[in-house]
Amino acid sequence: MTPPDDPALVRVLAADGTFAPTPEAERYLPLIDALADSDLETFYRDMVTVRAFDRQATNLQRQGQLALWPPSFGQEAAQVGSARAARAQDHLFPSYREHVVCTIRGVDPVDIVRLMRGLTHGGWDPTDPKNGNTHIYTLVLGSQTLHAAGFGMGLVFDRRCGTGDPERDEAVLVYYGDGSSSQGDVHEAMVFAASYRTPQVFFLQNNQWAISVPVATQSAVPLVRRAAGYGIPSIQVDGNDVLASYAVSKTALDEARAGEGPRAIEALTYRMGAHTTSDDPSKYRTSEEEQAWAQRDPIARMRAYLQGRGASDAFFAEVDADAAAYADDVRVRTNELGDLDRETIFAHVYSEPHPLIDEQRRWLADYEASFEEA
What we know:
This protein is α/β, with parallel strands linked by helices. The protein is built from 14 helices and 7 strands. The strands form 2 sheets. A 5-stranded parallel beta sheet has the order 1-2-3-7-6, sandwiched between helices. A two-stranded antiparallel sheet has the order 4-5.
């Protein structure tokens, strides 16, 4: 499973960080040219910061502070580029690995940690403006695509897209993985999205492995063709190129927001870490494969590009220091979270009071009281 070298792929930066657009990337170059140096530096800062957070969270899980952690190591460019392409009014539906997508939109990283620690049913309130229209993580594979399609249908019914006002029209961006792309939910979502012409972008992060199952086992054809089969315009992008991810995502979101219907993106990337901290990728991946993809590290690629544009050593040192401080702050606040409030288990299971929940609440209270009496 080697890194892609297909000239039909949308790629702006070569693996070594040089500016070398593929033919398919030419149409997106005006969007790249419009980016200021500060935008490019923000992309780099986002990626470095989330990798520091990701490593810290992995360490916290190993120390018993989290029940589970799904690393995003290696997938930073696909996520940063797409998230930075979204407008404030857009709604984002993550899967469970889109840590930097959430934090870019305003979600407190400790709210993600709280979920993985088992302290909450959701992590954050998607209706709170400070969370930037970011919906909660979905650990049931593929179901978030249906949620996004339903939301997109609502935008169509309420005429909140395609009005000709780009500052007010809304779009939906939903993330899912190569394994999820084989779920029935994803295909049902595409049927509804295509039928109702929802303002929706399906963003598939193909990280090459559905836990221990390679993509080749799941599909005999490129995954990008699946959405195309439903009549959804689809494109394949180098997911380790943050500039390409940004430009392709911005174009797709603008088209969807304008009422042109759903779009699909397959971002070819690689999960450098484990599927989750309960996984051991050495059981099914070779070191040669990992090393080949490491040569296309999205952060190293962007760093080389910025250096070629004259970014200073001081800038990179500042980013590294800020990212380390960010991760340290997460560690400190995680250690201060404490244990689960018993009532949290029973909250929001049903929309209305339910006798079964009341019975379970009483049973647990009596059970814990029995230990105190003993």
